[in-house]
Amino acid sequence: MEAWEDQAIILSARPYGEGAVAHVLTAHRGKRAGYVYGSRAALEPGTLAAARWQARGAEFLGTLSLEPLKAHAPLLGHDAARLAALASACALLDAGLAEREPAPGAFEGLCALLSIISREESVDPWLLWPAAYVFWEVQLLDALGFALDLEACAAGGDGPLTHVSPRTGRAVSAQQAEPYEAKLLKLPGFLRPERAAPAPEDILGGLALTGYFLEHRAFAQDTRGLPAARARLLAALGGMRTSA
Amino acid sequence: MSTTSRASPLDTLIGSLARLPGLGRRSAQRIALHLLSRREAVLEPLLEALAHAARAVKPCSVCGNLDGADPCGICTDAGRERGQICVVASPADLWAMEGAGAYRGLYHVTGGVLSALEGVGPEALNLDALAARAAGAQEVILALPATVDGMTTAHAIAATLAETGARVTRLGQGVPVGGELGRLDPGTIAAALRARGG
């Protein structure tokens, strides 16, 4: 009998027979799946749970029991954009991470993101969670093997970094970028080494940047493309910007 | 059960039952045995009911509810409050609302909720018809599941209906009647606190 216990965040749950097949991101074992008996009521994406998995052999699907520790979704139901960010992060991890492969930092990164998204803010909302989400996608690209290098100019320039090469994912300074500007991706100020405070268009620019590499690199071989939840996040942020 | 490679009628029956929502193969076996051991009392009336339902029951062309008539009994009920439309995900949710006996308006059944996992997008839901109906309504009540997908759908519908002029409201979320705080999850308590009233 194979078994393990770990903390996990629920990424998805699909009804199957009298229960559901759940995918979770564990603290120490990467993305794992298991059959959960009974109601799906507690199997909401983003819920932190104490997970216990057991199976007759390591290669079996196995059964998961999940004891919820903290549900984030109920805290976000009133806010379309935050809810969309939670759904997008869980869907990207669910679709992007390989099962049973180590994913160092992914659990901690998602915990931190969910904590920031769930936090009530007294300052301009664009300054915190949307920027944190873009940084999280940059980290996700790294975890999926498509790291961006946004700290130094790929062409050796020493001016301010303003663009990113769509081919290499490396930053390019304004001077070096000038002849190729139409072919390069824009690097928003808050992703540059000097970390300028983000404006709404910077957040959308950051998502356009990470979205390019997610779509053309990380999910290039996935016939389903990027999860629809991410497109809904873009739409929700667009709506938030319009109403701001 | 047969051990040959070709499925026997019993295997086919069990396989068909096991595809029903909430049933696995063991439950399907129990149901199949129950049906076959009570042919006259259970199996044959069930067959007749299934055949009759398959012929007679259809979705209402106005609201999407399942009924023997089109438009359905609720849409044609003159005693209903016609300025209120309650949006539900499925006929089962409509039946639950009707069972509560607290609502006398009309309904709109979307046929599901947005789901990235299941590949359900806005085009798969019955939303265009809802927008047309909402234009003549005073209030649209979103009674969708309190899940991530359900809440996402509610936000999408609210955005779709923003131009119609109808007031869009949602069911309250929080402590259920008979619920003890000590047994509730923190998210539910937080939602209840947010929705508190005096």
Explain what you see.
- The complex is a heterodimer of chains A (244) and B (198).
- Chain A has helices at residues 73-76, 80-96, 106-118, 129-143, 174-177, 200-218, 228-243; strands spanning 2-16, 19-26, 31-37, 48-55, 63-70, 161-164, 171-173, 185-186.
- Chain A is α+β, with helices and mostly antiparallel strands and 244 residues long.
- Chain A folds into two domains: 2-70, OB fold (Dihydrolipoamide Acetyltransferase, E2P); 73-150 and 187-243.
- In chain A, helix 6 (200-218) packs antiparallel against helix 7.
- The model of chain A has no long low-confidence stretch (mean pLDDT 91).
- Chain A starts with a strand and ends with a helix.
- Chain A has a five-stranded antiparallel β-sheet. In chain A, strands 7-6-8 form a three-stranded antiparallel β-sheet.
- Chain B has 198 residues and is an alpha/beta fold.
- Chain B has two domains: 9-56, Orthogonal Bundle (Helicase, Ruva Protein, domain 3); 80-170, Dna Topoisomerase Vi A Subunit, Chain: A, domain 2, CATH 3.40.1360.10.
- Helix content of chain B is 41%, strand content 13%.
- Chain B is built from seven helices and six strands; from the N terminus they run αααβββαβαβαβα.
- Chain B has helices spanning 9-18, 25-37, 39-56, 91-100, 127-134, 148-160, 186-194, and strands at residues 58-59, 66-67, 81-88, 105-109, 139-142, 167-170.
- Chain B has a four-stranded parallel β-sheet with strand order 4-3-5-6. A two-stranded antiparallel ribbon of chain B has the order 1-2.
- In chain B, strand 3, helix 4 and strand 4 form a beta-alpha-beta unit.
- The longest helix of chain B is centred in the first third of the chain and has 18 residues, at 39-56.
- The radius of gyration of chain B is 21 Å and the shape is globular.
- The model of chain B has no long low-confidence stretch (mean pLDDT 91).
- Chains A and B meet through strand 1, helix 1, helix 2 and helix 7 of A and helix 6 and helix 7 of B.
